[in-house]
């Protein structure tokens, strides 16, 4: 009887170890690599088109199962004063419009993955919904992106059009209102996570 109890305990430990290692093998987390990632904001004005590039990105993505692209969580942050155009006066107007003194970051937090389509060999088309927060205003938005995974790396690429006024951001102006920017901007991203 004692041997049977001991054998049952050993079997239980082996089974628990098996469950633990199989879940570790499938659940994975990746952190954003700022040097290998890019995010651009493209807009228009009554004079010329303009572009901002993010110098400082942070974030992570975690999977319940990477091979099946079952995403558990995804969060991305952009430092507002790291958005640069190459023109300091435009950057100052951008920071002011985005209320950077009070709201230091722009963030996206995944809420739900609606669909995942397996394209081939680690490439998936993902339709998702998340909370986008700009200048302290949070809005739920649809976001479609392509997810590629290779050994030890995940890459997310996509784009999203938004209106600044939806986030209570007045499109920046310059030269006493002589230069005005359009309300709609296009955000393009290619983020590398390791």
Automatic annotation (TrEMBL):
Keywords on record: Signal
Matches recorded under InterPro entries: Lipid/polyisoprenoid-bd_YceI (IPR007372), TTHA0802/YceI-like_sf (IPR036761)
Designated name of the protein: YceI family protein
UniProt-listed Pfam families: YceI
Lipid/polyisoprenoid-binding YceI-like domain ranges (all copies): 29-194
Signal peptide: 1-27
Superkingdom assignment: Bacteria
Source species of the chain: Mariniflexile ostreae
Record field: transmembrane: none
Keyword Signal: yes
């Amino acid at each position: 009887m004692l041997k049977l109890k001991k054998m049952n305990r050993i079997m239980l430990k082996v089974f628990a170890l098996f469950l633990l290692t199989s879940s570790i093998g499938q659940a994975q987390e990746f952190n954003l690599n700022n040097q290998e990632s890019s995010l651009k904001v493209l807009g228009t004005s009554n004079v010329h088109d303009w572009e901002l590039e993010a110098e400082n990105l942070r974030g992570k993505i975690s999977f319940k199962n990477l091979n099946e692209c079952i995403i558990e969580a995804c969060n991305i942050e952009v430092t507002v004063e790291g958005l640069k155009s190459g023109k300091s006066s435009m950057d100052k107007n951008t920071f002011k419009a985005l209320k950077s003194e009070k709201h230091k970051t722009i963030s996206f937090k995944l809420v739900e993955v609606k669909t995942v389509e397996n394209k081939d060999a680690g490439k998936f088309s993902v339709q998702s919904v998340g909370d986008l927060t700009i200048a302290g205003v949070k809005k739920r938005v649809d976001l479609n992106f392509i997810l590629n995974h290779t050994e030890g790396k995940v890459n997310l690429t996509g784009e999203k059009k938004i209106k600044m006024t939806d986030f209570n951001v007045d499109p920046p102006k310059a030269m006493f209102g002589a230069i005005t920017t359009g309300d709609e901007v296009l955000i393009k991203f290619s983020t590398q996570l390791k």
